[in-house]
Write a structure and sequence with these properties.
elongated; about 0% strand; 5 helices; mainly alpha; about 100 residues; 434 Repressor (Amino-terminal Domain)
Length: about 100
């Protein structure tokens, strides 16, 4: 479906491929995208600080392969671990929002 400017929106593409929001396939895609986005945000923050994965891992008491798995969306992460990486490893603060 295209709008007046003959442009297909991301939501329209996702609706066609995964179904409308709330449908199981769409919800799975949304969750996987958020995990991917989190990994990218952590990697960007680490690089902005000029840190290697190994340096970040050492600062927050984990190992390089775990940091790599998070950044590459290959690992689930506990909230307590995420907070430790952000606060202790990166010196930042985690802000959460909830959309209903």
């Amino acid at each position: 479906m295209k709008n007046k400017a003959n442009v297909t929106t991301l939501d329209e593409l996702l609706d066609n491929k995964y179904g409308k929001k709330g449908e199981p396939a769409r919800e799975q895609w949304e969750q996987e995208f958020e995990a991917f986005r989190l990994g990218v945000l952590l990697e960007q923050a680490r690089l902005k600080l000029g840190m290697t994965q190994e340096e970040l891992a050492e600062k927050c008491g984990t190992n390089k392969s775990y940091i790599s798995r998070i950044e590459n969306n290959a690992s689930d992460i506990r909230l307590s671990t995420l907070m430790k990486i952000i606060h202790t490893g990166l010196g930042g603060h985690l802000k959460l929002t909830l959309d209903l």
